[in-house]
Design brief:
Blueprint: H1 5-21, E1 30-32, E2 41-43, H2 49-53, H3 57-67, E3 78-80, E4 84-87, H4 91-101, E5 117-121, H5 134-151, E6 155-159, H6 168-179, H7 182-187, H8 189-206, H9 208-222, H10 226-250, H11 267-276, E7 280-283, E8 286-289, E9 302-305, H12 313-328, E10 332-335, H13 342-357, E11 361-364, E12 370-371, H14 388-406, H15 412-432, E13 440-441, H16 444-448, H17 455-476, H18 492-501, H19 504-514, H20 517-537, H21 546-570
Parallel strand pairs: 5-6, 5-10, 10-11, 12-13
Antiparallel strand pairs: 1-2, 2-4, 3-4, 7-8, 8-9
The structure holds arginine (ARG).
The site of arginine has 10 residues, from helix 12.
Length: about 575
């Protein structure tokens, strides 16, 4: 058992097709039915075989049905349409499977097959800028992917590819030397860096001599001038401390924090090898990779060296891929970066293919924008980008009175702690609950609501299920231990909940393949609703029937496990009470 119904049915179907029709299929196209009228799962892969086998598809499907053995998982398969095979899960199988899963920390979900080494490139803010609301998405989505893939057994390296190199440093160093305000620097270091950068770039635009001076500072830095290098290090450090505050609040960690500067020494070599291989060529004094063969990539080259000899964002990204292949033997790299960089990544991936790395699985996990109530990019009242820390503060402040009302006796420290965790969970969840490729509206009332597809609702449902387990212990005098015996279904709500639990493994696997965390959110929401429906209708501790109580407790424990696994993959805070 793998804890993945789709995977198991696929194997069974492949086997049956081979036996009945004598052909090997890669993918028998098993999926969950969208309409329960037809059953729970369907095998669609026989129909397309009819052409090559020159036979009636329904007849072929019948032959497959005759030999298909699901080992008791499903009832008698039925034929539908021109050659689809429909399957219904057996209640007995569900009862047995979830009864057993209740004894397992992983709820019976095994690691994936075909495990990979995957680098997840996420968050990646630029140095000398405060993290703003736009950094939330990459951080939260990337973190969820890291955790989900890791749970499924992949070797994952979460890398914060910070923008710590580039032309901005010439401007910053110039402005620092001319205009820094030590007092401001001491009280708000990152704010002062932001101010200096804005000032330097505005001055440079007005005055060509200043622009030249900025370029000279940059050249000095690139040539290793000790004063400029020390300044650069200081800027990077200030930014890092600032970013770390946000990561601490979000409880996000990275395995590596290799910024763009990590690849500096490799850049000249990258350009040389591209030139040698005839992949890049000169263009108006610069060097670029052209995609003459591809209409889609257009005729704007992927620049790897500027006219003045400096290297580009593209160059360091190429060096980064090469490093990850060499250092980790990575099979897959995920770039959790907003949709505006689609063109950059398309060209990066096409360049890597030209360089002989076509076998690498490189994916741009792109995402849309966060919008305000008015449907425009989310801004403060005065029209500025919203600082991430302000956003998290506000979440906490808004939730605090509700917590205080509900838990007047726990003391203010504890109330704050709960508010923090609910607030963070709500913000994160709202960010992941929608298809990442679309823009979404940031609406406080919706995302903080205790009901609906929200973080607080899921956190609350987990707390509720765990409190039943605690209550059992205090009534019985010893903790509940699931026996592993099959569950007993007295009511539909129990059956429905148990059936939902069988789908967690498949859901996680879909997130792994499609890189869409909202699929997991949707699943957890349905699971939580089914749990609450069960809990409203079925007495657990209050029933005198001991066997039924044990069965229901097993279901409660399994649900708590399922919610816990899902929320920990999404990295939504889980707490003892709320
Ligand atoms: N620092 C970049 C930005 O803020 C994002 C970096 C994404 N990762 C990468 N390997 N290009 O736009």
């Amino acid at each position: 058992m793998s804890g993945r119904i789709l995977h198991e049915l696929s194997q069974m179907a492949t086997q049956a097709i081979k036996e009945a029709l004598g052909v090997d299929v890669d993918d028998p196209d098993v999926r969950a039915c969208t309409d329960p009228k037809f059953g729970d799962y369907q095998i669609n892969g026989v129909l397309p075989l009819a052409k090559t086998l020159r036979d009636n598809p329904r007849k072929l499907a019948q032959k497959v049905v005759d030999v298909l053995d699901t080992g008791g998982m499903c009832g008698e398969p039925s034929l539908a349409g021109p050659g689809f095979i429909n399957l219904k899960l057996n209640d007995d199988w569900v009862a047995k499977t979830i009864g057993r899963a209740a004894t397992d920390d992983r709820l019976g979900i095994a690691k994936s097959t075909e495990l990979e080494t995957i680098v997840v490139d996420f968050s990646s803010p630029n140095v000398a800028k405060r993290m703003h609301v736009g950094h939330l998405r990459s951080t939260v989505l990337g973190d969820a992917l890291v955790r989900t893939l890791r749970f499924l057994g992949d070797t994952v390296i979460g890398d914060n590819h910070v923008g710590d190199w580039g032309t901005q440093f010439g401007i910053l160093i110039w402005a620092w030397k001319q205009e820094r305000d030590e007092v401001a620097l001491a009280s708000d270091p990152i704010g002062e860096l932001e101010r200096l950068y804005k000032l330097g770039s505005a001055r440079g635009k007005e005055d060509e001599a200043i622009a030249d001076a900025c370029r000279a500072e940059l050249a000095g830095l690139q040539a290793g001038d000790p004063e400029n290098l020390a300044l650069w290090e200081r800027f990077v450090e200030i930014s890092r401390i600032e970013a770390q505050k946000a990561y601490d609040r979000l409880e996000v960690e990275f395995d590596t924090w290799h910024g763009e500067s990590h690849y500096n020494d490799a850049l000249a070599g990258v350009v040389d090898s591209l030139l040698d291989a005839g992949i890049a060529r000169e263009t108006e004094g610069a060097i670029g990779v052209f995609f003459d063969e591809s209409e889609k990539l257009g005729d704007i080259p992927f620049l790897v060296r500027k006219r003045d000899g400096a290297f580009n964002y593209a160059t360091s990204d190429i060096a980064t891929v090469l490093f990850r292949v060499r250092e980790y033997s990575a099979d897959r790299m995920l770039y959790v970066v907003d949709s505006r960089q689609q063109e950059h990544f398309r060209k990066l991936f096409a360049t890597m293919a030209k360089m002989g790395h076509g076998d690498l699985d490189l994916e741009h996990v792109h995402f849309g924008m966060i919008l305000g109530d008015d449907g425009k990019p989310f801004k403060t009242r005065s029209g500025e980008t919203v600082a991430l820390s302000d956003l998290l503060d506000e979440a906490e402040e808004r939730i605090l009175p509700k917590v205080a009302e509900k838990w007047p006796d726990v003391g203010e420290v504890e109330q704050r702690r709960i508010a923090q965790r609910v607030g963070i969970g709500a913000v994160k969840y709202a960010d992941m609950a929608q298809h990442r490729a679309t823009d979404y509206k940031f609406e406080w009332d919706k995302l903080l609501a205790a009901e609906g597809n929200t973080g607080p609702y899921l956190q609350y449902t987990l707390v509720r299920s765990n409190s039943v387990v605690r209550e059992y212990e205090s009534r019985q005098g010893s903790p509940f231990v699931a026996s592993g015996a099959p569950l007993r279904f007295e009511r539909d709500e129990e059956r429905e909940l148990a059936r939902e639990l069988t789908k967690l493994g498949d859901t996680l696997e879909r997130v792994r393949k499609q890189l869409l965390p909202h699929i997991l959110c949707e699943y957890l929401y349905v699971l939580a609703r089914k749990f609450n429906a069960f809990y409203a209708k079925c007495k657990v501790l209050g029933t005198d029937d001991e066997a039924l109580r044990e069965s229901r407790m097993a279901l409660v424990v399994a649900t708590a496990r399922g919610l816990d696994i899902g929320l920990s993959c999404l990295n939504i805070p889980r707490m003892a009470r709320m």
